Structures are given as structure tokens and as C-alpha cells.
Amino acid sequence: MGLKNLLTTHIGAADSHTLNHYKSVGGYESQKKALSEMTAEQIVNDVKNSGLRGRGGAGFPTGNKWGFIPKTDKPKYLICNGDEGEPGTFKDRLLLEKLPHMLIEGMVIAAKAIDSHQGYIYIRGEFHKGIRVVEEAVEEAYKAGLLGENIMGLGYNFDLAVYSGAGAYICGEESALINSLEGRRGHPRLKPPFPAVSGLYACPTVVNNVETFCNVPHIIRMTGEEYKKIGTEKSPGTRLFAVSGHVKKPGIYEVEMGTPMKELIYDICGGIKNDKTLKAVIPGGSSSPILTAEEAMTATMDYESIASLKSMLGSGAVIILSEVADLVETTYRLAEFYSHESCGQCTPCREGTHWVKDLLHKIKNGEGTEKDVELIFSLSRNMEGGTTICPLADACVMAVRPTMTKFKGEFSARLKKEVSVSH
User: Fold this and answer.
1) In the chain, N or C terminus with fewer CB closer than 10 Å?
2) Is the pTM of this model over 0.85?
3) Where is the NADH-ubiquinone oxidoreductase 51kDa subunit iron-sulphur binding domain (predicted)?
């Protein structure tokens, strides 16, 4: 366990983003193998056998997702979700800027797997450098015959376009992203139907994130069975973690799944900044419930371990909080984010996130009461569990309620002391 370079083996090279460098280290060999030696079913089965799970949030098995695409005459679309907007998350941006050809190769292989001939890379609008680098890489790939008609002379056609978002967090949700691609308002859609049946332009569609696609060339090169030997039985492979907060060496680290969180924090990241005491860890972006220091020291960086602690790996953002962290302020900031980013389509989310944010503002300023705390918990119950079209309201609840429960003392200390009046 620990650090393991798979995706990031050659990322340190100054020209890692160029076609020449990528091909010099074996780039596009997996694409050639997939297009010339493998059927669509064999590609899907290889990815299923690898156990690869989505690297964007829920960790859904990638091969299963591809297998849901129906065999119809309708066009099939392939979309890369590069709308990385979860607070604390910045690992996909690195891949976009440093390894765009790995992403392109992974998408071409996935395209054959689902019989798609048109793909889109949807990138967060603020990633100006990433957008430019990926556009240049796509242009390089077209000129080299790695995209377009008769790719590599092997008879497969696949076109790829880069689309810039407009900075809406909600467009990281796959159906809102699809609406945005169609030129509509970025509102999530009711499911079913799921995108695999009716996605972009009401056609079968697969949406995976950047890191997920970047794993595909490695799986094809080494076979799914060999890939599955990395990591744990149910969480195979490596994972990029964006570590931030109160650590001595924040940054992006590729580690083998199943690595102890203690090793990630203290060995790989050098320990807590200024040698303070660890207070808490947010293990997978702001929507993953917070872990206490005691829980963090027992956790391993895989889906099952974090789920057993009633949290999730989510977007791969590990936020370290030391004893100096003000968790009331932190929780308010996150609630403010979700209130701002709610698309407003569903009443429990539109109104709930707004009220949670305002009540936490009162508590933060020492003006809140126990009734305000009770109201936050009451609102939370009405915001979660399928009351909205997408999980943004649930994300707000997961960012707020566990922190208020596990660190109750910090919130109680900020409440306004009620003065009893005797007559």
C-alpha cells in the first residue's frame, strides 16, 4: 500500500501533455490493441473484470455502467465529466493539464465499447489552462489520425469535442451536465429514464469523469485481471487524492486503494501543520460526512472502509483539519456554498439550503439558540432521502449534520445564553 504511480508515472515531465511525449512512453498502444484485437464485448468485460469504479463520486462499477447501453440503432454518446467543482477537489484538473492524451485514449477505447461515434469533454469554465491544453491535445490527435474517421487505419470512427461550462456546480451532476450540453438550463433531470437509456438528445449516453477514463488505457494494457491485483478486493486500482488543509505537504497523491489514512496524512503528507493535533478529516470532498480524528486513524482509503464509517470517498478531496480549525465557521462556509449553488428547481433544496445557511450564520455570530439547532436538524430531515431530483440537498445535509452531531460542544459554545427572568 501507499504511493503507487500508475496514471501519474510520467506526469513530472515538462512536456507530458504533448503527443510526442505520450507516444514515447507507450501512449495509444492500448487504443491500437482495443481497436484492432478486441470486440466491444471484450473491452466491456475487461473493464468489468478490473473492478474499476467511478472516480467521481458514488464509485459505481464502470464496466457495469457501459454494459447498460442498449444495442439500438440510435446514436450513442460518450461524455467526460470534467466539471470538477466540489470544494477541496483539484485532482482532475491535474490530469486535464498534464495528461490530456491519456484521457483521449481512454475515451476512444470506451467509445468502441459502447459503439459511440461522438464524444464530448465537458470542462469547468474556470479551468482556462486545462481547456486550452485539452483543445490542443484533441487537435494533435486529429492530425495524427488518432481521432476522426478511420482511426489509426483500423476502421473505427470517433469524433471528440471540448465544451466549456459556465461555472455551475450543479452541472457536475450528469443529467444537469447533459442539459447544459444541449444548451438548456443546467437543471438535473428526473430519473428514470437514466442516461444509459435516454441521455444526450434522448439517446443512450455514458458519462464518466476524467480519472475514470484515464484508468482505461492501463486496464487494456495490463488486462483487467492484473489491474484487479492492485488495491483491495472490492476497491481495486489506485486513486488520486487531493489533500489540503492543515498538513505539511498538501498536494495530489496517487496511492493504492486500501492505504491507511494515517499513512496518507503522517507519512505521505508529512503530518499536521505546525505539529498540531488532528481534529477531523473530510475524506471525499465537502459532501462527505466528517470523520473524527479517532475514526480517521482507523480508516483505509477505499470505498468499503469509509462507508463503514458512514462517509464516502466521493470526489477524492481529503481535507485535514487540526485543533486550530473553527468547525462552526467551516460548516457555515460549506452551507453557504450549497445555498449559492442550488439550482432552485426543488423546494426542499432551494428553501432548505437557504435556511440552514442563515441559521448557521446566526450560530456563528453568537446569536443562535437551541431552537435554531433543532430547526437545522428538522430541516435536514425534510431535505434528504429522495425529496429532491438530485443529491445537492443531501450533500448540504451531509456537510452540516454530522459535524454538528460529532462536534456538538463547539456549536453549543457559540449559542446565545438564554437569561431567565424572575417575576
Assistant:
1) C
2) yes
3) 328-373
